[in-house]
Amino acid sequence: MQWRLSGYVVALAALATLPANADDLRQRFSKHACAVAHISSAESSGTGFFVNSTGLMVTASHVVYDPTWYAERGQFHVRVTPKKNLAATLLDGKTYPIDLGGHSTLDDANAEFDLAAVQTSIHNECFISISPQFSADVGQHLISIGFPGLNPEGVLYEGFLSSAHARFQAPVGVVGNQQITANFDVFRVQMPITPGASGAPVLDDADNAIAVVTAVPVLLTQNIERVIGTLKAQQGVTMSLGRINVVQTLAELAWVVKEFETPGAGYAVPLRYILVPGGK
After folding, report:
1. Collapsing DSSP states into helix, strand and coil, what is residue 196?
2. What is the pLDDT of residues 54-107, one digit of tens each?
């Protein structure tokens, strides 16, 4: 049995300015951080969150799978392959292996929206309910909890919905030389989300998940690192511009952008697009 929720969210991130009650934020983080996990693999890491007590975890597909896009009968689809050495580390520091056991057509269908519903063997009484309503208003207050690279304890984000894009056409993959563009509803969330938070829940003030952070393409750190490598290869020595060491400066910029960039961008698709095994 498969159940498609009627709303999914992809998150675009930027600097949050919305004031909030500090005590309320502390209480909400304390209540929900135990439902959020740091997910690691052989080549990357991200975030996931439990949606029931029997180990069902929701995350962004690219956190746990590698996608391959292909064309069939004039339509573009994606097939996913589980990443190697997947593990989930909970807030208490305990780490559990995640065995995806291959993949199913459900996983491929979710991956078209960069979503994943993963059944783990981890039983956790702390979980986050998915909202029964899959809509949000511009200006609506939101929070998120994620695991960016340098913060294995979990990080609290706060912000608001700044826009809701109907049929937002975002690039999601490539087949040959052709760019594949998604065609689904997207939310833009104003909050200082940083890389590594992909797969994190976006919560409304009823403490229900209305979105999943799926990407944070701020400045392209990889492009900066590529520039550094090119400069080193071409010059063979460290370049300087006056008193400025160019390679050193670019390296520091890449690190800051990767770990701390706050005006970042990420996509979230209303949670209605996700398929959940068993419908619970």
Report:
1. coil
2. 999 999 999 999 988 888 877 788 899 999 999 999 988 899 999 987 678 899
Helices (H), the chain: 22-32, 61-64, 105-111, 221-235, 246-260
* pTM value > 0.85: no
Residue 44, SS3 per DSSP: coil
Cβ neighbours around 46 below 10 Å, total: 26
The tally of CA atoms less than 13 A away on the side-chain side of residue 257 is: 18
Nearest residue to 251 via CA among 262, 264, 238, 265: 238
Q: With beta carbons less than 8 A apart as the criterion, state whether 32 and 128 touch.
A: yes
Rounded mean pLDDT of 199-221? 79
Percentage, residues of the chain above pLDDT 70: 66
**Structure tokens, 49:** 């969150």
Quote the CA–CA distance of 139 and 193 in Å, as a whole number.
17
Backbone angles phi, psi at 206, to 5 degrees: -90, 5
> What domains appear along the chain, each with residue ranges and CATH number?
2-218+261-277 (2.40.10.120), 219-259 (no CATH)
What letter would DSSP give residue 236?
A: S
Residue-wise pLDDT tens digits, 232-254: 666 555 555 555 566 666 666 66
